[in-house]
Structure formats: structure tokens, C-alpha cells
Design brief:
single chain, about 170 residues, alpha+beta, TATA-Binding Protein, 2 domains, about 35% helix, about 30% strand, globular
């Protein structure tokens, strides 16, 4: 796999599309995919691939295009200034933008200020989160997502291009 001759990946989010299985959860994800492939290929003349399964899923449920950008190693004071600026901009978009909090479903504890979220009428969104989990300084993470029920074969860049432009204005 390290030579790039095999491209299967697994991670805790059950993702695929890379050539690593560095995390123990990755092995379980790979075994899950192999189990799905074994089931789907029972009594089949033509080999059913992961691509076939994924495209059939998209036809039935739509496709979520997703991307994340990390801006790492920022001085803490500058990262906080960026968020103060974003908060001032987001106030102009009441009903479409908010600063969200997380409520734990088990103990009901609330973690405020988890990020700034802008949601389009169709449910597409971009989210800015400030993270201090990096090795040096702060990290600003930008998450972008759009669900589509048509145009299922776009590149991620094509599907999210207008959202990226809005988020980085």
C-alpha cells in the first residue's frame, strides 16, 4: 500500500479513497467493505465494485460533496481576530448564519461557541471552527458541504466551488 499499488482506506468515519490503514478503526472499515462486497457479489456473473455500490447509493439518496481546509499554526491572537471579524459579518445574515453550540445527547451538557455556520436555503453549508488541538498555535478549520440529488458525477471542486468563493470572501 505504501508503494501506491493498492488504494483502499479505512478510518473511523468509514471513509475510503486513500492508501492507508494506519488507524485500528481502519481495519474494521475495510472488513466492513469486504463484507458488503462479498454479499453484493453472491450469485453475480458480473463483478460488483465499490464504485457500483456507491453510485447506486447516490442515485437513491443523493450525494454529499464535502471538503475541509485547515489553516494551521496561526498565532492565537490573530486567529481570535479572524473569528471576531467573521462574527461581525455573520450578524448580517440572520436566519442563515449562527454561532452554534453542541448539546451532549447523554448528559445534556452544552459546549458553546463551537463554530460559525452559514446554511443556504438548500441545506448546503460552510462552517468555520477554531481549534487549539494543533501542535503550535491555533487552527482554523473550514468545512464545506453540499448535498445533490442530480449532478452526481461532479468533482468536489465543481460541486463546492461557489460555496468556497462565498466562504472566503
Amino acid at each position: 500500500m505504501d508503494d501506491g499499488k493498492l488504494s483502499i482506506c479505512g478510518e473511523e468515519s468509514f471513509g475510503t479513497g486513500s492508501d492507508h490503514i494506519r488507524e485500528k478503526d481502519g481495519i474494521w472499515a475495510i472488513l466492513a467493505w469486504l463484507s458488503i462486497l462479498a454479499f453484493k457479489n453472491q450469485n453475480q456473473e458480473k463483478l460488483i465494485t465499490v464504485e457500483d455500490i456507491v453510485k447506486e447509493h447516490w442515485k437513491q439518496y443523493g450525494r454529499n460533496y464535502y471538503c475541509r481546509y485547515d489553516y494551521e499554526g496561526l498565532p492565537d491572537d490573530k486567529a481570535k481576530k479572524v473569528f471576531d471579524h467573521l462574527r461581525s459579518i455573520f450578524k448580517e445574515f440572520k436566519g442563515m448564519a449562527d454561532e452554534f453550540c453542541y448539546t451532549d445527547p447523554v448528559d445534556k451538557s452544552v459546549s458553546p461557541n463551537q463554530g460559525l455556520r452559514f446554511v443556504y436555503p438548500d441545506g448546503s453549508r460552510f462552517v468555520f471552527r477554531l481549534s487549539g488541538t494543533g501542535t503550535v498555535g491555533s487552527t482554523i478549520r473550514l468545512y464545506l458541504e453540499r448535498k445533490m440529488t442530480d449532478k452526481l458525477d461532479l468533482s468536489t471542486e465543481e460541486a463546492l466551488g461557489s460555496i468556497v468563493k462565498d466562504a472566503l470572501l
